[in-house]
Hints:
The chain is mainly beta. About 5% of the residues lie in helices and about 45% in strands. A hairpin with a 4-residue loop joins β7 and β8 (about 80-85).
Amino acid sequence: QVQLVESGGGLVQTGGSLRLSCAASGRTFSSYAMAWFRQAPGKEREFVTAISRSGSTTYYADSVKGRFTISRDNAKNTVYLQMNSLKPEDTAVYFCAADSDYTTAYARRTARSYDYWGQGTQLTVSS
């Protein structure tokens, strides 16, 4: 059982920055690969970024490469998403997710591969 709670969303202007946090419960946080997904109004949930169990490897959707950075602090049971150079198309509800399985590149980017989800936090980027 893992509980995930996102925080840090808000309203920012185009070009601005924001950092999201995802706090996880339990003693086995380091055994989960973690990811961020997002969902905009009227759209399907899409993959944003993921990080390996140790934090040594990261993965990014093409749309956020060079702008977003995922990191984790296993001692604090927390994963972060640093978002820079924000664009209006980044506007969405951002969800933190955890996966207990080793994944392929395809599964890593598929929402149904993940076992646990947070409630989401809203990011709005104004033009």
